[in-house]
Amino acid sequence: MERERELGNESNESTRSEEEYDPVAEVQRVIESVVQFGDYRRTQRRECHNLVRRFKLMLPILEELRDLPQPFPKIGVAWLVKFKDALLFAKDLLQLCSQGSKIHLVIN
What are the tens digits of pLDDT across the range 33-91? Predict the structure, then answer.
């Protein structure tokens, strides 16, 4: 996941100067990938489902952001990039709860 985050940041840096960079699409892509995770361990199932539910609740807000006139102000793009990074960390946590072993969960 760190590799994905690094690759995402590199691609963001190279495309930020271009007009076609869409930070809302990047955030939506992260949320949609989180929603596709399978079952979670019984001990974390409730918390993970709550987090995924909250991710899903953000999708209509992101659709509203898409309807705003483009381009976004620089501060808005910076905020969305930080938001995407936070979502990637949450995605890592959810993936660990979904696919990690019980011993690995205790260590982390």
Answer: 887 777 777 777 788 888 888 888 888 988 888 888 777 788 888 888 899 999 999 88
Give the up-direction half-sphere exposure of residue 14: CA atoms within 13 A in the CB hemisphere: 5
**What are the helix (H) ranges across the chain?**
2-15, 23-35, 45-67, 74-99, 102-107
What span, in angstroms and rounded, lies between the C-alpha atoms of 10 and 37?
Answer: 25
* Phi–psi pair at 29, nearest 5 degrees: -65, -40
